[in-house]
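Supplementary Methods S3. Complex input for the adenosine-5'-diphosphate-bound model.
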Amino acid sequence: MIRLNNVSRSYNSGSSSTTALSNITLNIKKGEFIAIVGPSGSGKTTLLNIIGGLDTPTTGEVLFNKKNLKKLNDDQLSKYRNNEIGFIFQEFHLEPHLSVYDNVLLPAYFNNKTQKEENRTKKLIEEVQLSKKSQSKASELSGGEKQRTAIARALINNPQIILADEPTGNLDLKTGATILKLLKTLHKNHNTTLIVATHDEKIAASANKIIKL
Ligand SMILES: Nc1ncnc2c1ncn2[C@@H]1O[C@H](COP(=O)(O)OP(=O)(O)O)[C@@H](O)[C@H]1O
Ligand SMILES: [Mg+2]
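Predicted complex, serialized as structure tokens:
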């Protein structure tokens, strides 16, 4: 489903250049659970951003279902990001003043907010076991609850791929373990491809494939 051909990404500033990724070639199949591991600064976030269409390679190409992301126009690329990809971040990136419900529904506003999406929001909030907190503001949640909200939000547009950047990095061990369990369950139930950048050995151990950077 995803193919990277010789992907490199470097950043130039003045006379110095940093290579974030160097010649990455890989294939990810539909439904796989992939862990991306490597020390801080090894390019994990850069790789996720490139797969998610938030960043572009300096050289090489990214194919999604055989379509080259480089050939998409701005409109097609934002559709790819919004409809095919669900992002989960270490820092949650929720809207603090909005409720759990509105945070989950938010990415669907960019399509059409219909009854169908409202129903899906409710169902996803049940799936991440936050029904009781549905009307609470994001700023009033615990870390684990914030991440559950972010996971439901990532699934609202029924994406083919979930990209999670150190999703347990800001959580204590026990909460991290329940978030991992939830991610694995949802990955299976929603038939998505799951790509997780992580330092967490437990996450890496339960993946189908580990990519070391
Ligand atoms: N916007 C940027 N400008 C310059 N250098 C960057 C930028 N983003 C990342 N880098 C550099 O690219 C390398 C990889 O970073 P990153 O992908 O964030 O790694 P990781 O997520 O594994 O910690 C690091 O050396 C980092 O400093
Ligand atoms: Mg990172």
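The beta strands are 2-13, 16-28, 33-37, 59-64, 67-68, 85-89, 161-165, 193-197, 209-212. The helical segments are 44-51, 74-84, 100-109, 115-127, 143-155, 173-189, 201-206.
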